[in-house]
Amino acid sequence: MNFTATQASTLDNERETLMNRVDLDVRMVSAIAGDRAMNAREQHILERVMNERGEGIYSDILYALTHRSFPARQAKHLWDEIGAHRIAMKSALGRDVGIPVATHDYLTNIANLMKSVTVIEESKIASLTNVATRDGLTGLFDQATFKYRLKEELERQVRHGGALSLLMFDLDRFKNLNDNHGHAEGDRVLKGVADVIRSQVRMLDVAARYGGEEFAIILPTVDTAGALLFANRLREAIFKAFETEEYTVSMSGGICTNLETDDKSADELIKTADKGLYKAKEAGRNRIEMAE
Prior knowledge:
alpha+beta, Alpha-Beta Plaits, 2 domains, 5-stranded mixed sheet, 11% strand, elongated
């Protein structure tokens, strides 16, 4: 497979991936490449990631090595090509350069998908990536990361089937809280809501601060009934977390589900869930609604 200059330019201009890959680091990828034996914990992590991500694991592998985003199908092809390139380099140089060097050399000098390589300590890269993908106040993913992850989860759904649900919600009358109690107290509430969200979601769910007092949660493998149960449990947990305050904190939310027989885009899911949110507002707030 040959990449044209146009394709390379398009990929180069694509925003760098926003996901925080905590499971796959360079050491783990080296084990996957056969450079060393895996311990039991690493084997367990790899099995879980493969089950959750399917072909998307190749995107994760290249992200761990380059901190650049590649679609799953392309990443799989590139991983195969990098393996062959590594063997060719070993033959030419008389020594094994290792998977990180082979990866960067192939992507930079052969596939022309990276313009330059800057060497940065891996721990600093992880820290910078985490900051770049997270909302500064709540620690949840930011809107851009959420949209990227939603598209990726839809790609996963195409490969593996099953349902995918999206919950969009915001805090009721939050402006009044800010006006009456101050923005510092409003920020404290937003942080507290984020803590409640983290206590309720699963490892594979994706929770984000969509903007202001609005939040979004991607629920892979969850159908409409399951999404409603989760959303109402979360709604009750948020209400309970602030019940001793002199003000009330409640949420209104909308749900949209994409079944494997559906063909909704990420934008369509967001718009539909948002319609459900406004439907909940019109119905009196502190409730969850379906737009459809």
